[in-house]
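Sat 14:20. Reprocessing the chain from the morning session after the first attempt stalled halfway. Input below, unchanged.
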Amino acid sequence: MKKLMNSADSFVDEMLDGLVAACPSLRRSGRVVRTATGPGPGRVGIVSGGGSGHLPLFTGYVGEGLLDACAIGDVFAGPSVASCVEAIRAADGGAGVLLLYGNYGGDRMNFDLAAESVELDGLATRSVLGADDIASAAPAEAHKRRGVAGIVYAYKIAGAKAATGADLDAVSAAAAATVAATRTIGVALSPCLIPGAASPAFELGDQEIEMGMGIHGEPGIWRAPLTSADVIADEMVDRLLADPVEESSKRVSVMVNSLGATPLEELLIVYRRVSARLTDAGLTIVKPLVGHFATSMEMAGLSLSICRLDGELEALLAAPAACPFWRV
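Finished this time. Tokens:
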């Protein structure tokens, strides 16, 4: 597998250099990307972070009405404590900072240490973890679930809530409500190659797929021969609708997300089936999202997310926002 790069060691830093060169709305300091304007004074800041290799996640969502800053690590590796601290300080507008990131052990540890550090200086923080991947744990152990593409909904809704001038507790509550209302499952068709690695991150046969595989190649639910798009979409919808959600709203947003190599044409074929199935189930789709939102290098496959919307979440999802890869 070929890659357009100069060296594996420079891959992340040169990518970040290119990101800020292409996007005048962003600034970079080491492994931290922030908005050029900084947080609004007196407004709650929002920070995320994670490993490289998932653009637009994580750094791609730094922008108006979304994240104020993001700490980034090496490919598939969490950011350092120092980067987390710097990102939190960069997002501080004087009203506290929400730490909104995926439920992965290294990320939790480093963000927890960073929060302890800044709180010694009087900077208030709250933490909300994305945990939407239903394939990674049963409903009874939902707190163990990984955070995947569904965290984008939490970015959008928390960012919109912060833009209203809400306090730190209210912004955190909006993010937590979104996480609780969101479910995701993915399917992989082919592996990705980490820069500098001698072999792919995992192996799949030429005609094989894996349902529920994580965005770093974590094991899924089953492997089987490739079948039709409708059959795959049906199982994903069935699994998502069967997973209990406290919010029983009949209005939902749907995200069909490419894991990297899967083209828009194939995503639309899947969305066509998903839309019909959800309509038949009595659900109304608002603000559907089809495209690249959380990838895994050049992995082929997709994820499907469903976010149940009450009146407030729907209004916040519709509020204006802008970042390099998404505009509302």
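The chain has eight helices and 15 strands.
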